Amino acid sequence: xxxxxxxxxxxxxxxxxxxxxxxxxxxxxxxxxxxxxxxxxxxxxxxxxxxxxxxxxxxxxxxxxxxxxxxxxxxxxxxxxxxxxxxxxxxxxxxxxxxxxxxxxxxxxxxxxxxxxxxxxxxxxxxxxxxxxxxxxxxxxxxxxxxxxxxxxxxxxxxxxxxxxxxxxxxxxxxxxxxxxxxxxxxxxxxxxxxxxxxxxxxxxxxxxxxxxxxxxxxxxxxxxxxxxxxxxxxxxxxxxxxxxxxxxxxxxxxxxxxxxxxxxxxxxxxxxxxxxxxxxxxxxxxxxxxxxxxxxxxxxxxxxxxxxxxxxxxxxxxxxxxxxxxxxxxxxxxxxxxxxxxxxxxxxxxxxxxxxxxxxxxxxxxxxxxxxxxxxxxxxxxxxxxxxxxxxxxxxxxxxxxxxxxxxxxxxxxxxxxxxxxxxxxxxxxxxxxxxxxxxxxxxxxxxxxx
Length: 452
Ligand code: UDP
Hints:
About 40% of the residues lie in helices and about 15% in strands. By secondary structure, it is α/β, with parallel strands linked by helices. It has two domains: about 5-220 and about 415-450, Rossmann fold, CATH 3.40.50; about 230-410, Rossmann fold, CATH 3.40.50. Helix 2 (about 40-50) packs parallel to helix 17, helix 10 (about 265-275) packs across helix 15 (about 380-390) and helix 13 packs across helix 16. The two termini are about 40 Å apart. The model has no long low-confidence stretch (mean pLDDT about 95). The structure holds uridine-5'-diphosphate. Uridine-5'-diphosphate binds near residues 66, 70, 284 and 344.
């Protein structure tokens, strides 16, 4: 089934062998071995054999749109294909609930403000509704809760022996969080009910929470429709569908329409580049059901760019169209002001593209400045780097090759998913893990400094 047509069951179940609902598929393991090599696959098989029979459940807030859904679409069927019983369920929430969780998201990104007592009440009553709907109707061994939207479920639902792990995908900062005591109290109260938390990078870890923490970055699926190899012919056909000619150099940013991704800044960078070099800009974005602001941002962008025929604002493109845009681009831009990880950066790097990005959040984990891409501090530097890349195809090629190699080593599904399994197993089996523990299966701390 194509992801774009993916519809969960009425109760939010997105994948469950128990219920006979398995609409997502991945290729067999041997196909992945051709990409990552036999060694990582052997390690994966050893771990999955040892954990065979473990029941895991993923709880998230949207079946489509954004990095979490992107990962779960691949990782859930992948885990099932290697003998780990992983289910996925999407929580229910009204527009009002998602407006509040979006505010929570803004606050966690450091925006000034607070959740009012009324907001907190609405948030909690939506969580209660999910509890009443029996969101968990069996007894999994490990429950993964993704991002802040379903956070409160652990305190409400944790009962028996099962372990709850919060997977925080967002750009979160302990110092900034501390500056907002009300927010700190709110989020800490819910987080403390978990048995462990997973953060994308060392600099996101909330060290004062009394629970073991893991550092595990996300991954992309190299064989998904979004990332599979494509012929030149296919790329061209996909772009023709959007009335884009590939002869003129393409700059692109692929991202949900969200001010945190600063698409307005991308337009401004493009205009300055275009004064010196002929090029076109693609801003391809989509909406997630848990992000009520997307449509407004999209409409504003459409309106402010309508006089320039070389700016293409594309909405809700298919995965193969996104794949084709990334492959057809000369330079990929990621101008985010905050970024949990930025799977779009990983996807572009995997396609051998140089990415020019702000050094925020998880981007600093991926781009080694001047080596696998460029980290930019401000518009002027962005314009300079993009012009340099547009004028030097050889540099683009060399940088792109290094970027692809870096992703292959660190951020591909069969390699990184082992860390999730080890974390689940660790928490599931071990008793009395010191709450100060910070566990990393790779020396990420060496390369994950905040850069700004
Ligand atoms: N994406 C997409 N279509 C779009 C825009 C984004 O399929 O029009 C995908 C993108 O390819 C990536 C994910 O959505 O896989 C975004 O993940 P990322 O970590 O970059 O950002 P998030 O949206 O989670 O903040």
